[in-house]
Amino acid sequence: MIKYLWTFGLYFISVLGMSSSAQNVGDTSEKLPLKISENGRYLTDQKGIPFLIVADVAWQLPRKLDPADVALYLDTRKKQVFNTILIQALPATPSSTSKQNPFSKDGNLAKPNSNYFDHLEKIVIAAKERELNIGIDAVPPGWYQFLQQQGAAACQIYASYLSKRLSKYDNVFWLIPSNEVVNPKITAALADGLKLPNVPSKLIASLSTQLKASLVRPAQDSTTDMDFFIPDSTVSISAYLKHMESQKNLYLHAKKPFVISNVELTKDVKDQSLLFRNQIYKGVLNFSAGFCHSSTIKNFNPSWKQNINKDGSEYVKHFVKTIGKLPWEFMRPNPNINLIAASPKDTEISTTFMNNNALVLIYSSTSASFSLNTASLGFSDYSIIWYSPRTGKRWAQNNIPTQSNYEISPPESQIGWDWVILIGGKK
Questions:
Q1: What is the pTM of this model?
Q2: Which pLDDT value is given to residue 317?
Q3: How many Cα neighbours within 13 Å face the side chain of 220?
Q4: Which of 56, 164, 218, 366 has the most CB atoms within 10 Å of its CB?
């Protein structure tokens, strides 16, 4: 625990990239499989180092891409500092076209077609070679009705086949549907099939498409280990705002680690970059165990190669460079501290605090000035670093007084510019 009791000055040396970080956000060699932290709130590698999930949704990669394009996609995302890829084990629906059918001609879930799963296994191997985790959604939403028809026994046989075939790879973890969308008996059968006694154990996540506190798995639910919230369709601005409001207090209900995906907005929203950054930072500020990036890439339409470098992924490296060098696993919202003394109307400001309040992370969605109540933190000798999530550029601001209403302003100001602000103090 000593490394988490550094003085403010050492925190900022780390933030500025002048020392190595204890946080694990990229390299996965010799550290897998991932596991749940002792306090049950985030993931760690096998050495116990906190692991911040930085995932990309690539649902239809197995069905749409040949080996050469799989390599291109994985290499690109690795370069963009993603450490996790999410794919679907099956085509989007039972009727979706594929070079190989995943099951026998009669569509029996209990009779997997090994030729189909050869390709899936090669994708897992390719991800492992690039030190990427791969989360495999065992059953996409388009198959849920099919599951009900086939029954729990067939579901367990299919899941057992997947586990025997792929659980030997330490970069694999599983996603299965939540109890809210399929019969709990089906969910239990899938989980039981994936947890074979003589097969290496892997994390199992519950997958939900709606962000509701009621969907967070209670601690005593041993079916799954964590929760992923990944919307499955584009939304309007009003639905986006509802999504953002829902995640504010999710940390109060969560008993297991959770990861939140951004929502994709309808095409009438021309510039979605600010809204994307708003989601990626606020997710972690609200105690998420990482972030899940979702874009049109997940369906691998013909334009995916042109879009893969401009779908929000260009901001992920700045996110990792900042958040990954902070003790994010010990930071959480604290409604009992009134740090923001005053802010302009409609300015969205989110805060999260180190457990001893020596370090504060703020995200502001605008370039408006606002006032801080630094006296509320109980420290002195405050300094601030302004960080641009658009460009990665930093500005330092020292000698911040301890007072109840101190106005701060971004070093540069433009409409549509957002800011990450790090505040530190020492006794």
A1: 0.91
A2: 92
A3: 0
A4: 56
